[in-house]
Amino acid sequence: MKLLIVEDELSLQGALYRGFHKLGFLADAASDGEEALHLFFSNNYALVILDLNMPVLQGMDVLSKIREENKDIPVLILSAKSEIEDKIEGLDRGANDFLAKPFHFSELEARVRALLRRSFKTGDSFIQIENVKVDTSSMRLFVSDKEVALAKKEYRIIEYLCLRRGETVSATEIIENIWDNDAENAHESLKVHICNLRKKIPEGFIKNMRGRGYYVE
Fold first, then answer.
1. Confidence label for 38 from pLDDT (cuts 50, 70 and 90)
2. What is the per-residue burial (b if ≥16 Cβ within 10 Å, else e) of 168-192?
């Protein structure tokens, strides 16, 4: 999944980028409000981490612009401001969560995962579909309660499809959320990973609709 990190403190921005990258997320980073909006309207993100005190365009204004376009994407506000009025304003403008600085990265990670599970309509860290179970907290896959060894991208593909179960997801959308921006031959690589996944999970679990993409029922 791909995150948008909006933070003007470059040291913190870099730490967040590296931290989520190690967890298997892709991320873009913006240092001011205008750059954030340009990235948001040019890409497909699963969640936005948004600092309030931003140059050029303030975080609250960025949040309002995001909500004008997209009512559903989770937005988590980061701010050195801890006053209750700021939290109320952020939530009133459409933020889903608010975390005051300083914070522990582990808490931010937990909040991000909780928001992603909520946005994809699953209430806990397990997604059970027939005899296939995805543990989103430990990033593991089980078939009939037996763990299946997966490469990192294989896991991220099956997790993404299971979170979006019932929806047909295009190859381009999967690539935007799982591959790096400059990845070469990503479409061919996706086909290879899907083929490898199908050998490890029940036959017919991942389906495809010609010309539209892949889906899990």
1. very high
2. ebebebbbbbbbeeeeeebeeebee
**Burial zone of 217 (CB within 10 Å; 0-12 exposed, 13-18 middle, 19+ buried):** exposed
CA dihedral of residues 5, 159, 114, 101 (deg, nearest 10): -30
Task: Retrieve residue 32's tokens.
Answer: 């001011």
Does the pTM surpass 0.85? The reply is: no
One-letter identity of residue 181: N
Tokens standing for 94? Answer: 């459409």
SS3 88: helix
CA–CA separation, 150 vs 156, rounded Å?
9
Sheet holding 26-30, edge to edge: 26-30, 2-6, 47-51, 75-79, 97-100
φ, ψ dihedrals at 181, nearest 5°: -55, -35
3-class secondary structure, 115? helix
Structure token digits, residue 124:
């806990």
Q: What angle do CA 101, 41, 117 make, to 5 degrees?
A: 55
Q: Per residue in 53-70, pLDDT tens?
A: 888 899 999 999 999 989
Closest alpha carbon to 142 in 205, 215, 214: 205
- Show the tokens assigned to 23: 């967890």
Residue 121 makes CB contacts below 8 A (sequence gap 6+) with none
Q: Which residues contact 43 (CB under 8 A, 6 or more apart)?
A: 2, 4, 28, 176
